[in-house]
Every structure is written in structure tokens, then in C-alpha cells.
Amino acid sequence: RKEVEQDPGPFNVPEGATVAFNCTYSNSASQSFFWYRQDCRKEPKLLMSVYSSGNEDGRFTAQLNRASQYISLLIRDSKLSDSATYLCVVNGENNDMRFGAGTRLTVKP
Amino acid sequence: DVKVTQSSRYLVKRTGEKVFLECVQDMDHENMFWYRQDPGLGLRLIYFSYDVKMKEKGDIPEGYSVSREKKERFSLILESASTNQTSMYLCASKRDRVTEAFFGQGTRLTVV
């Protein structure tokens, strides 16, 4: 079983839609959590950290449920520029950093 | 401006060759990582290092080794390249568990 599991999608949504991505992790000792964004043929870049209390950055909301070992990302009012692959990232107790396989999002006009 | 530099963007090597992929960061980060990225499989952790001369195996270390003689440089070595090691290789560094990781632009390696 992979340590970090993500729905691979693809998700194809119209502009203005709300879309949610989910991620589960297997190691209960995991320490910190992130969402990264990767554009085509580019390296991943940090989108946002995920905190236990949940956190919001503009149209993006991230949530963490430690009991269920589950992370989510909600994007409201999708823009064309949100089209990318979204990667769930989990940091373990040994400073290892593991990625989900990524969920591809395409926002259409 | 933070920077992680990988020595080559594209590389073509022959089966059986010894291949060195170099990664240098200028942020004085403790932690460095090597991944390979393949379609449908995402980024898979090969090796990581949390300090100079320290290394830990990731999920797919077979066929690879690493070297970290200086804090800023983390090298990935393919001892005897094989065609199934054709992939995009990404290096990353980060200061600690809770901070952002920065990536190099990747090396697309083709083994023929």
C-alpha cells in the first residue's frame, strides 16, 4: 500500500466551479502536510501548508483530519489558471517527504 | 532568491554506464531529496539526506546510491544504468519538517 494515496482524476470543471481533492496517508506518525502545485513540464511548487485547525488562502481551503489520516483541498470559483496537477505531500518523523501521485485539474471556459 | 540547481536538463546514457546526477542548493538547507517522476506514478522517493554524510533510503533505492560530502551538494549515482531508469529526476531541499521544499528544474534521463 502506498504511503500517500490520491484520487488521480482527471477533474474537468467549468470556470467558477468548486472542486475538492482528497488524500489519505498511512503513517499515523506523520508530522506535517502540504499541497503542492505542478504545472506541465515544471517542477512542483508549494501551494499551501495544511494545519490541524484548517486554513484558508483566498479561494483555497485546506483541511486535515488526523484521526482519519485524511487531507483535503477545496478550490472555489475556479479560474483557467488553476489548471495544473495538485500534489498531496506528507512529511514523516524521519524528515522524509512523500508525495501522492497527483490529481490533474483542467478548468475550461 | 532561493535556488536548487541540477547539473543537466537532458541526459542520454547507454545501458551499463555509471551516471552521476548533481544537485546544488544555496539556501544552507539541512535536508535534501532525490525523486523520480513517471506518468501515473507521481514523485517516488529514492533517497534523502538530513545532514552531511547522512543518507536514508526512500521507497525505490534499488539501482541507485547517493553522496553528500558537502551540505550544499547531493549527488545521485546510477551504478549501472538500465532502460527502466529512464525517467525525470527531481532534486529538492528544505530547511526542516514544517517549511517549504524547493525543487530543481529536473533532469530528464534517457537510457538507451
Summary tags:
heterodimer; A: 109 residues; mainly beta; 6-stranded mixed beta sheet; 5-stranded antiparallel beta sheet; 11 strands; globular; B: 112 residues; 7-stranded mixed beta sheet; 4-stranded antiparallel beta sheet
Explain what this protein looks like in three dimensions.
- The complex is a heterodimer of chains A (109) and B (112).
- Chain A is globular, with a radius of gyration of 13 Å.
- Chain A is 0% helix and 54% strand.
- In chain A, strand 6 (55-57) and strand 7 form a beta hairpin.
- Chain A is built from no helices and eleven strands.
- Chain B has 112 residues and is mainly β.
- In chain B, strands 2, 4, 5, 6, 9, 10 and 11 form a seven-stranded mixed β-sheet that branches. A four-stranded antiparallel β-sheet of chain B has the order 1-3-8-7, with no helix packed on it.
- In chain B, a hairpin with a 3-residue loop joins strand 4 (31-38) and strand 5.
- Chain A binds chain B through residues 3, 6, 8, 31-32, 34, 36, 42-46, 49, 87, 89, 91, 94-102, and chain B through 31, 33, 35, 40-45, 48, 50, 56, 58-59, 90, 92, 94, 96-98, 100-101, 103-106.
Structure in a nutshell:
Chain A is an all-beta fold. Chain A is 0% helix and 54% strand.
Number of helices of chain B: 0
Overall outline of chain A:
globular
Count every beta strand of chain A, where a strand is a DSSP E run of 2 or more residues.
11
Instruction: Please state the overall shape of chain B, judged from the principal axes of the Cα atoms.
Output: globular
Number of strands of chain B: 11
Largest sheet of chain A: 6 strands, mixed
What is the mean predicted local confidence, pLDDT of chain B?
95
User: What's the oligomerization state?
Assistant: heterodimer
User: Mind describing the biggest β-sheet of chain B?
Assistant: 7 strands, mixed
Helix-strand category of chain A: mainly beta
- The low-confidence runs of chain A, each spanning 5 or more residues with pLDDT under 50, are none
Using CB atoms under 8 Å apart, which protein chain pair has the greatest interface? A-B, 25 and 26 residues
- The proportion of residues forming helix of chain B, as a percent range, comes to under 10%
Query: In sequence order, what are the helices and strands of chain B, one letter per element?
Result: EEEEEEEEEEE
What fraction of residues of chain B sit in β-strands?
A: over 45%
User: Can you count the helices of chain A?
Assistant: 0
- The end-to-end span of chain A amounts to 38 Å
Radius of gyration of chain A: 13 Å
Helix content of chain A: under 10%
